TrEMBL record:
<comment type="similarity">
    <text>Belongs to the ABC transporter superfamily.</text>
</comment>
<keyword id="KW-0067">ATP-binding</keyword>
<keyword id="KW-0547">Nucleotide-binding</keyword>
<dbReference type="GO" id="GO:0055052">
    <property type="term" value="C:ATP-binding cassette (ABC) transporter complex, substrate-binding subunit-containing"/>
</dbReference>
<dbReference type="InterPro" id="IPR003439">
    <property type="entry name" value="ABC_transporter-like_ATP-bd"/>
</dbReference>
<dbReference type="InterPro" id="IPR013611">
    <property type="entry name" value="Transp-assoc_OB_typ2"/>
</dbReference>
<dbReference type="InterPro" id="IPR008995">
    <property type="entry name" value="Mo/tungstate-bd_C_term_dom"/>
</dbReference>
<dbReference type="InterPro" id="IPR012340">
    <property type="entry name" value="NA-bd_OB-fold"/>
</dbReference>
<dbReference type="GO" id="GO:0140359">
    <property type="term" value="F:ABC-type transporter activity"/>
</dbReference>
<keyword id="KW-0813">Transport</keyword>
<dbReference type="GO" id="GO:0005524">
    <property type="term" value="F:ATP binding"/>
</dbReference>
<dbReference type="Pfam" id="PF08402">
    <property type="entry name" value="TOBE_2"/>
</dbReference>
<dbReference type="InterPro" id="IPR003593">
    <property type="entry name" value="AAA+_ATPase"/>
</dbReference>
<dbReference type="InterPro" id="IPR047641">
    <property type="entry name" value="ABC_transpr_MalK/UgpC-like"/>
</dbReference>
<protein>
    <submittedName>
        <fullName>Carbohydrate ABC transporter ATP-binding protein (CUT1 family)</fullName>
    </submittedName>
</protein>
<dbReference type="InterPro" id="IPR027417">
    <property type="entry name" value="P-loop_NTPase"/>
</dbReference>
<dbReference type="Pfam" id="PF00005">
    <property type="entry name" value="ABC_tran"/>
</dbReference>
Length: 374
């Protein structure tokens, strides 16, 4: 299956003063499960539509394998039907008057695939997705999750080199979303299809993708594995967007006791401590101790007061006020603490995420604080 490469791609819509996508360089390798992740309006769906051929590039070049399929300079454009891609929309777009079997083999009939091969491929993909028993039913007789499987089966039956998914799970309830995430993971492993998946849901991206491209304002902010994105966010936007509860951020130029305490702790550990404008601490990196004797030697610690304990079912969010700032920590062990209790907040040095005045990660600080290599 081919590699997809976008080089210096820009997309501007008529009448708009801003680019929907700008200076986009992106390579999607054969067999990769790539998630384009970001908030509404960040350019992720536009990027998917350009790959599919539903949108023309305003500038730059798009290649699928060795073939240029869209180039603003060369005035080249290969239509969607000639790109050998499969596209599944947010709406399932099933034919209501056709049975599940006929919906599944619809693309094969259009391509005039011989009957014997068509039947075999249809049977194989319906069996793989667990919808074989519904072959004589109609879409209105199936649940949302079952209809989603039919939409995927229709695309997989034609054996596309690349499968493009535009927020396909957003219409499902929480349980079905979880089931379909597992299904998509299994499909990727079974068929080895290159998948490009658009979502605003960070958990979908984290659980499904081999590679995540985080987008904002038409620009890729960071691209990497789910672990890279979460453990080493490249900038403030990525740090805040990925994680629930969101990362705790402390403005170092603020006149607060916690900012002063962090600056004092970092002084001597970093050569350029004065360049730190923002400190991030993930909620799960905070540990609370009721006895000061339990505090580890080299860790950052600060006296704090419990403001609230919020059960979320299987885990708890604890609100802590430390050094004049409200912070959130998470735990999977039922806390014995309650509002008003005095505690010592502890953070290991490797748990600090440091950003400069431009909101960019200070990579030179990672080694000094003991971060694992990215």
């Amino acid at each position: 299956m081919p590699t997809i490469a976008l080089s210096q791609v820009r997309k501007t819509y008529p009448g708009s003063s801003t680019d929907a996508v700008r200076s986009l360089d992106l390579e999607i390798a054969d067999g990769e499960f790539m998630c384009l992740l970001g908030p509404s309006g960040c350019g992720k769906t536009t990027t998917l539509r350009m790959i599919a051929g539903l949108e023309n590039l305003s500038a730059g070049e798009l290649r699928i394998g060795d073939r240029v399929v869209d180039s603003a300079v060369e005035a080249t454009f290969v239509p969607p039907e000639d790109r050998k891609l499969g596209l599944v929309f947010q709406s399932y777009a099933l034919w209501p008057h056709l049975t599940i079997e006929r919906n599944t083999d619809f693309g094969l009939r259009l391509r005039k695939v011989p009957k014997a091969e068509r039947i075999k491929r249809t049977d194989d993909v319906m069996r793989a997705l667990g919808i074989e028993q519904y072959r004589d039913r109609y879409p209105s007789q199936l649940s949302g999750g079952q209809q989603q499987r039919v939409a995927l089966a229709r695309m997989l039956a034609v054996s596309p080199g690349v499968l493009l998914l535009d927020e396909p799970l957003s219409n499902l309830d929480a349980r079905l979303r979880l089931e379909m995430r597992a299904e998509l993971k299994r499909i990727h492993g079974k068929f080895g299809t290159t998948i490009v998946f658009v979502t605003h849901d960070q958990w979908e991206a984290m659980t499904l993708a081999t590679t995540i491209a985080v987008m904002n304002d038409g620009v890729i902010q960071q691209m990497g594995t789910p672990d890279d994105i979460y453990e080493r966010p490249a900038n403030r936007f990525v740090a805040e967007f990925v994680g629930s509860p969101p990362i705790n951020l402390i403005e170092q130029n603020a006149n607060t006791p916690i900012a002063a305490a962090i600056a004092s702790y970092l002084d001597g550990r970093l050569h350029d401590v004065g360049a730190v404008a923002l400190t991030g601490i993930r909620p799960e990196a905070i540990v609370l101790h009721t006895d000061a004797k339990d505090v580890p030697q080299d860790s950052f610690n600060l006296r704090a007061v419990i403001e609230g304990v919020l059960p979320t079912g299987g885990s708890w969010i604890v609100e802590v006020r430390a050094g004049g700032q409200l912070l959130f920590m998470t735990t999977h062990v039922a806390p014995t603490l309650s509002a008003g209790d005095d505690v010592t907040m502890v953070v290991e040095p490797a748990a600090f995420h440091l950003f400069d005045t431009d909101g960019q990660r200070m990579l030179n600080a990672d080694k000094a604080l003991g971060h694992s290599a990215g």
